Amino acid sequence: MGRRLSWEHRTDEDLLDVRLCDLAVRIRGSEVEPRIRQLYQELEERGLRLRPVCFLADEWLCPDGQAAIGIPFYLAHPRLKSLEFRMMFEVEGGTPSWCMKLLRHEAGHAFDHAYGLSRREDWRRVFGSPRRRYNPYLYMVDPHSKRHVRNLPDNYAQCHPSEDFAETFAVWLNPASQWRTRYEGWPAMRKLRYVDRVLREIVDRPAPRRRAQLQNEIGAMQSTLWTYYRRKHRLYQIGDLAFAARDLKKIFRVSRADPPADPASAFIRRHKRALVESIAAWTGARPHPVSRLVAGLARLCDEHGLAIKDGAPETLVRLSTYAATLMVNRLRTWSSRVSMP
Predict the structure, then answer these.
(1) CA distance to 50, 176, 248, per residue, from 315 (Å)
(2) What is the reported pTM?
């Protein structure tokens, strides 16, 4: 990256005490910079003049009414990506492909804001009312639907009309999507053709000149990384998992060492992909909620100093069975609580 930052070699525990505004990370020189250049190149190839302002924020977002894209700060430094993975079990946008999918999606929102596309009557006929209330973390999904394109995980286009448009825009913009053949015969083709037609209309229209009012900019945030993750855990948490500590102590053992020599959380992280894939397959749940559930169980193992006590195969079977039961209860009753014999 070229710059040495004072916190780079701190332990995770010490790093969590650093304020977000003191991280001093920036897009220039980071892995995010070439991704933004690629986004701008794709827009240029489509003849679109608008270049959404990109800035580091606390999450992926497009501020209301603004032609701007907020990119999570942790993508600007590998040390922060490592911490994000430890705390959340995933790094949203952490690969080039995933990052580009998210950038194109947020660019769709930016174009909507800049040109007032969702205020058009024909937009509403195609996508629905943008005023419909929704929860981006909890929504009904038809995994077999062909009325929506597929860009981000969890069938995100089905979340809300505005997200449906942004996802359709992302697929339309992606030069590798081959949307004309991939979605042939799908009802979603109507939406793609609409986006294609409307954006061709604004090719010759100048980009808005008003200055973007940035929200959630990382340089203005006084909270520490610990506060940031505590808030994020509450946001993504599937219910209160504190009750699960008793059950986890039957799968693992309480270690007297601090930290344990063979921590249960490290075991869960090593087998995260297999756990998430098997639990999602057997329960029918979406991978992201399952991943957050598994992450919550790993954090509980850390909090209670749990360590491995049996062999890997037996532990995996017991843990996956337990987590799958939690997930099924969540799907049926909106609660993860379960009693384990």
Answers:
(1) 53, 42, 11
(2) 0.80
